[in-house]
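Supplementary Text 2. Reproducibility record for the structural model of the 142-residue chain.

All settings were left at their defaults, and a single model was retained for analysis rather than an ensemble. We include the record here because the model underlies the residue-level annotations in Supplementary Table 4.
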Amino acid sequence: SVDVEDTLLQQLWHPQISNEFKARLMNSLMSPTAPEAYRKETSYIYASGWPPLFSGDLHYYGKEFDLTEQAQHIDTRLLDVYILNGEYDTSGTVEGGKLAHETIKGSKWVEMKGMGHFPMSEDPIRFNEYLLPILQEIQNAE
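Retained model, structure tokens:
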């Protein structure tokens, strides 16, 4: 049998598939409201990468790592868990984040309105609006 996901990953490491295509894929995960200069910089990183690195990243993200069975065993009394999902991220979706939050008892979840998959690079100033309160909460808990 043919594993469709493996076939797609192999196609991304084909000599006729440019890194520019990969950059455009990543661009589709970003918020359309993020500053253009930051979106272009983030895409450039993917356009400049070593082709097998991208395939390996996607293989790990999409196939090798699955927290579904273990998530319920995370003890948030010992380890704080914060889940942030960007509104425009079609990879790490809001729905997926909510499900992870419901599975990990005691976790905290935030939907980042107007953000995508790469909030720290596509819109760092706006990302700070979500990150800094979490860091303050952690600092106050110490």
